[in-house]
Protein: tRNA (guanosine(18)-2'-O)-methyltransferase TARBP1
Amino acid sequence: MASIFTEDASESPVSELMGVLNLLGNDKLEDNVNRIIRGLVSYLSLDKGADVKKCKMLKSVLEVKHKLREGEVGVQDSVLEYKTIFMLCLSLLERSSDVKGQCFSSLCGVLQQTLLLMGRDSFCNCVTNAVMKCQEELTLFVNNADIEESQCACTIRPEVSLRILEAVFAALLHKQDENNRLSTHEGAKIRFGDDSMESLILSLIWCGVEHISVQTLQCVIPKVLTYMTDNSLLQKIWRHITKSCHSNVHHTFQILCILAQFYVPCDLQNVEISYSVAKDNIFWKILQSGLTSADPLVRKQALYLMKRAVDGICQNNMPFTLHCPDAVFWWDPAHSSKIWEHFFLIIETLEEKQAHIIRPVLPMVNLLVAPSSEGNVLHVSWLLCVFCRIISHDNNFVVKWGIMNFIRIHRELHFARNGHKILEFLRPFMDAVNNSALYSVNPEHCSLSEIGESLKDLFEDVIVESSHEDCRVFFGSVLDVMNSVSWAPVPLFNVVYALAHAPSIPVWDQQRLGVLEGFMSEALRCHCVFIRGAIQCMLLNATIHFADVAVLDINTVAQYLGSYISSESLKRGTSAWRDSVKWVKMFVSKDDAARFVSTSFLASAGQVCLSVTAVARMVVLLCDAELLPCCMADGTYSLARSLCTVLSCFHNCDKRLYASEAGQNHTLQLVICLLNESHTTCGDDLVRKTVTGCVNLILDQIFTYISRRMSSVTHLQDYHLVDLYLTALISLSAEPDILHQPKAHLTKLQDVALQVLMAPTAPPMCHYFSVRVLAFISHWLRNHCQCTCTAIEPCVILQTQSILISYMVRDGRVNSPPVKQEIELQLTRDLQTLWGKLTSTYLEAGWSIIADFVHSCLRAGDQILSLRSVEDMVSDIGTALEIGGSVLLVPVMNILEKMLPKYFGNEMFKLTSTCWSMIFELRKTELFWRTMKAFIQMLFQPSVMTIEACQHHLLQYSEKIFMHGEAIAGLSNMLVLQLQKVIAHASPEILEQYWAILVEALTFGPVHRRDQRIIMDTCRFISSLGNRCSVNELTSNDCCVDNEVRARGVQLLLAVCSSNKNHQVIGKLVDALMLKDSTASSRKTRYFGDSQLHRMKHRVMQSILVVEPLLDTEMAERLMQWLQNSLLVESQQPSVRYQQEWLLARLLYHHPCLRDRLWDMFQEAREKRPGSVCSFIAVVYQVACMLKDEQEMFVDRSMHEILPWCMAQHFSVRLYAQTTLQKLLVLCKIQQYERVAEKYAMVESILQTSMEHGNAVKNAQKLQQDFYFSAFHPVEHYTLETIFYDLPRLASVTCEEWIPTDLFTSCGVSGASHIELENSNRALKQFSVAAWVLKTSGGTEDSAATMADPPDNVQKKVVPWRSIIPEEDLASKPRHKQEEGLIVVASLIDRLPNLGGLSRTCEVFGVSEYVLGSLKYLEDKQFCSLSVTAEQWVPISEVKRHLLSRYLEAKRKDGYTLVGAEQTASSTRLNDFKFPQKTLLLLGNEKEGIPPDLMPFLDVCVEIPQQGVIRSLNVHVTGALFVWEYMRQRVLK
Structure:
């Protein structure tokens, strides 16, 4: 018996044990087995637990015992107490903690074998008790809602109970197989209360604990179903699935896949119990939801089920129809097979990530919609599944293709007309549309994106093809889906633009307008103001097109229109306003208008449910629609009468102390809104005059009211009222028709404010209110009053502000904010935040007063310094920034703007650095632009720029601005615009020390990311709409300002060129530009088209071309040498080469003394880079065209130099030389240079003959027709238009580099004495980009909408679904070892990559078992990198090298033929060998092969036929060939 307990037990312990027992003799065989069982059972102890090896051995011995008792089934064994063993195992299982361990599995096996050895009565009793016990524990588990509580309440873990049930039912099934009936009188089976068992199983499946549910489905249900031989449980599970499938799709497919053999039976799995769900229409709908799921596992499960179901139907080869009106699946044997094959190929391919794999399959979608003679083979819902997968793909090309072609197919199949609604498809469709990367366009055409155009077609098709009710449902659903998506700006614009340009149809009611109002908040989140305004304009147009005016209410419309921002979209005088006026006329009558005025306009604040902006805007709209008269009329409502009634609350407000302040505040707010809404871009009109006239009548009382409120606003909660009163003052003072005597009103207001400010006992809110009013008055004086100070008499500003300034500046009182009162010491968090805001705003107002004072009066600086020293002022400013924060930056920098020219030093520069740092903390806010503008104005002013000590600091800050300007659009433009203002007020010579700034401006422009380019393209398209989109009338397009920086840089350059010192100054600029180019080129000599380096070199050449006529000979010589080196060394992009050749030709033209150097360049090019000769030949031709007096001599010399190159080996050089010679000969004839023409007459005839053969004809014709040789003239086309627009366009440079003449004009460029703005010769406009230039730049992208024919052959990934066992595929466990098949033994192989590759081969071809020398190999990285998870699916076992002989012998006894892959004297060729079904393949070591000691165990050696010299193949390849040959012979046949 000692041999039985050996540690090196083989893989088949039962066989070994039978051999040992046979040696002991048959007489005492059963006694020996019994003694072994008793000995092993003695090792089982509840105290010590169970030993793994002993449990395994006990299980094996019990199997031996069971074999010995075959034929005596059901007879009780009197020797062994199996019931005691059973109860002991049951107790050990209940106490076990590791339910996944080997010991637990062995105990379950012991439990099952023990049951099989019991007699009928014991068996029945133990089975019944065990099942009842498990039922009780599992019922207790499922009845507790909380998982942790339920597990604590159970004495047995649910996993243990399920494993016990599995073992018990396995024993029951085994008994059935032996035909051993336990009861002959009450049926053949033990009954466990079928209803209660089924209910428990249902509860376990949907218990919410995944591993319990999976264990129930995998282990228990199959055995229960097989034992009960009834499908009622399957029916109950299916009914539960149909009710809960939408709530948990993942769980639904988990259940269906594990139970696929019962629900979707196929010929591969013979099951007695089944319930085919393929006959239920909801099954196919569940599959559709799975195929479109975002979870890859669910999609894989759905595809598996789909293939099983379709394959089963296909095998029947009979028509299949679901008898229900909404059936989504049917089968036509004549047509369906091919269609579903295409469907599966498309769905499987879409799981790939690479576009090159998916792209060939996409056209196959057309095959799915091709109808047969009997009608559509495929229900349209399957087509929607395909498109849903396409548009949810990760690749943008695939998504764009799906969107555009869905719309195309939608139009062709007339979905809407045929009743195939796509409402459930809208959400994934809109999610796919909301992808900014899909909206790239050709910026040259400035058009709407392809997706936008397709959306227009979709909405138009729906309106044309659908009924009115269907349109109402569809567009209502569109609005609901849009409202639930978080939109990016570009996709949202395209969607609302498509809606705005769809045909009008009344489908949106008042409820939809409410949804639109909420949606506006989503639209207004867009940070790009220009696109945000365009979205509002398009949304308003869409509302007008789709709103049902028959059911609209004026209040709802007023509230909706009030949500628009007037400064961006809906303002008087714009197209949007005019469209709104026409729309209001359609559903509002004069009675409705009068009713609205009486209920909303004239009502008190508490009675109005609309916003004040909505009321005021609607009132003005009613007036413009002529539904509400402006002037007073007897007995009727009018704007004037209503406004006078509203404003009557201000009559005698100084005497009516108890009048309703809430009503007066509401009226004041209404007045502000009316003034803002009535303002028009077309000048004053009757409505505007009516509003201003009525307000003017009561203006004194309004100022009186505000003055009185200055001392009565005492609570912190009244903070917003101060903003209201200040807004009113700003609006009233901005109206010249209202404020006829502004100084009188403001003087009174200032007196009151000063009294309140200087009152020590006044509440903090009163101090705050008064200083805000004083800041407003100071700003008004700065903008409307001129300083008239003389040495004797001060100006009005100094007189009125001196007291205030003295109070604020003296003793640093400007930095003393209000102090909290005692009642305000304990504030809530919100009020504490509000108090902080009040403090910072108070300080801002105080410093704003000082800033406005120093900018409005010439003697203000002296006045302030008489009150406080410079050092103290600088210290006060630093303290203010620490206390008040970033809101003080603008007024502080306005003050420093006046101080910096006179008082500069380290402290001042430190303060400047502090301001710079604080500005960039505001990067994401609107305040950033105000502060940056103030900063630039502070530093870059003539009086500072001329200070030598400041120049270094200014250059540093300019460099930082240009650097940040690459990421912040508009920042660099702000600096260049300021410099334009500087040279407008001072001499351009001020820029003499700031060439670095000018160079950066001329070469500025980053390479934008793709998303940024898409935004810029969208902004360009919006701008092209002109007045059709109101945002163009209200807001400037700040998205495309890079070109504007360069255009303004050119204006600065031309201004400098007009100065007297132009040669010296321009020379410095050219040196700086050449240095910038050389520095960049030294790092990288080769570059791509439109790269940052290409654009920089292109801009450098443009800038030098502009100043070329102003260069002296010395500078021209240096520049010529630089151009020569550049052409000889670098391979330039076409645009750069064009400009270099043009510049070189112009230098030679203007400086005759340099022409002889041109011929030396040919010789140097021959030695350094022969390909560069093309450029010098082009230069020769351009110079020849420009010359007048010396043309004949130059042409003669040119032909002499070019002629040898006509025989050059370089094709391009030869082509250029021959073409140029032809052009020069034509020039000789035109100019009648007979001597030269006669001299080269023979050459002309030879050229004609030479260029009539081969590729020369076609290429020479292209070159001669190119604009550079046919139309371009270096002198006539020397304009800014050619340099900055025509040449970049014809050189295929991105349109981001094009600067049109209208942009130059808007930037102040009008040409110069040496260069014109526009071409008088318009010949270049007729040319397009040459083909060779397009080839150089990379061409264009294919459109995603291109529908190619389906290819004959596409790449397909094999999905062997037929061999997948569903429950194991779900659980990611390896396949069970097949009883028959190929076993690959690789125990002799040492190298892990070979072992890993073999595991993948074995898995792919379905090898039944793969044997390794050690299972530890599976954890190695080298193994895993080659196996790619194959080890998870192929059965793998371990046999050590020294155990191979015993293993091989055991396999021979099991009936396997042992085949060795080895070359021997008697080996059989692989192509001649016939593999048996049960084959074991032994692979040898990489170096030694199969060792001699194992050769005798083999039945046959097989070798692979070879033709080469090398001795053998790699062992991985060898194994793969053997496995394939086995599969070819045994599986494929």
